[in-house]
Structure formats: C-alpha cells, structure tokens
Amino acid sequence: MTVVLRRIATVVAVPIALLAVWWMTSAQSTSYYLPPLSKILSTFDDVWFNQRFLDDVVPSLLRLLVGFSLALVLGVALGVLVGSSRAVRSYCEPVLEFLRAIPPPVLVPVLMLFAGIGDTMKVLVIVSGCIWPILLNTVEGVRAVDQVLSETCRVYRIGGRARLTTLVLRSASPQIMAGVRQAVSIGIILMVISEMFAASNGLGFTIIQFQRSFNITEMWTGILLLGILGFVLSLAVRAVDRRVLRWYHGQRRTHLGAR
Question: Which pTM value belongs to this model?
C-alpha cells in the first residue's frame, strides 16, 4: 500500500505544484484575457458539468477512441508486415518517410473533400497522425527480435500464428507501447484540431466558439479540461503498460539488480 501511495504522490506532485504556482501568480490578475485560476475553477462546473458534457466531451472522446483504435490495429499490422520482410521494407520505406513528413493538420482540407465534414473526417485525421509512432516503433521492434529465438522457432517448426503471438509481438511489445504513449498525445491534439474545422460539437469546436465570442474564462476552462483529459489518459496508458509489460519491467528490475 505504501508503494502505491508513493507512486500516486510522485505522479500528481508536479501537476499540483504547477496548479499552485498558477493560482498564486494569477491571484491578483485583473486582465480580462488572463483571469485568476480561482475564477476559472469556479466557472468550470457551470460550463462542463451539464448537458455540454454529453454534447461535446463524450463525442470528442468517442472520436479519439475510434481513431486511436484504428491507428493501433493498422499500425501494428503494417509494422509487423514491413518489419518482418526486408524486401517489403525496402519498397515501403521511401513511401513511409514521404507520408510521415506530411503534417496531419494539412490533410484536414483534403479529407473534408473526400469524407465530408462529419465524424468520419475527424476520425481519419486522428488516424493519420496516431498511426506513425505505432507503425514505426512496431517496425523497429519486429526488426530487433532476438535471432536466437527466431532460429529456435524455425528449428522447432513454430510458425504462423503461434510464432507471431509468442515471439514477434511479445518481443516487439515494449517498442509498440512506446509508440502507443506517443500516439495518445498526438491523438488529443488532432482531436481538437479536427473539431475546429466545420464542426458542430466537440471540445475543439466549443473552445473556439468561446474564443470567438470573447468568453475568455469559459475558454480557459476548456483548455484546463483538455489538460485533465490528457493527464488521465496518460495514467491509463501507463497502467496498461505496467500490466501488459509486467514481464519486461520484471526483467529490467532483475537486470539492474544484478548490476
């Protein structure tokens, strides 16, 4: 129990310290554009803990979930394919490097032409950014599979699905999870950007509407909510990481202890 409490304290210490600094430095603020944190917090409940939560926050989270899930499936599948074959990798690497260099926000007008202005466009924008860290980390993880283990599987005629799940994906899982952690942050950013274009709901839409109507305090509550969501999702990913890669972290602790 003490270890758990220590971990929780370590995680929340810096955010609490930053909020404390924000509170103290803004306490005497009279600027309309930089209201005190106390005013932002007192407005937070009225802005978000009502029907707006269902109308704006939930749709945003659903788009993020769908887009991230699609990026995860596609990124891992393509990463395994590209990483497992030198021939495929030699053909695909120039194309992958070209596509990766295109900033996802630039694709928003293009995707609007083909997918319209509905949820499909917003999900595709999220996919277009989240897929790259997952894909590239999966490729590197698959390429780094231990050759001794690979030869052992070949000798014992372990192939197909068994080899994929027990050797390839397991060996590449630390790299895949590293890509997942990066993809979550990118997904939140693209979720907001996609909702600022031709949208009728969502966090990005609501924040930009507050800004355009000069409801500055309400706009800051939206920014604060995005920070909270990012923090919560980061904790969720870390929890999944610890559970999925329990064997990996155990090996690292054993190795460090031996040293």
Answer: 0.90
Could you tell me which of 178, 186, 181, 221 has the C-alpha nearest to residue 203? Answer: 221
Token pair of 104 as six digits: 């996802």
CA distance 16 to 220: 18
- Compute the residue count for the chain: 259
Domain count, the chain: 1
Please identify which residue in the block is written with the tokens 């690979």. Answer: 150
Supply the CATH number for residue 206's domain: 1.10.3720.10
| Segment 188-208, tens digit of pLDDT | 999 999 998 878 899 999 999
- Tokens encoding 9: 């304290």
Q: Which domain holds residue 243?
A: 44-258
- Give residue for tokens 């497992």: 84
Q: Write down the mean pLDDT value for the chain.
A: 89
Q: Are 224 and 205 in contact (CB under 8 A)?
A: no
> Would you say residue 252 lies in a domain?
yes
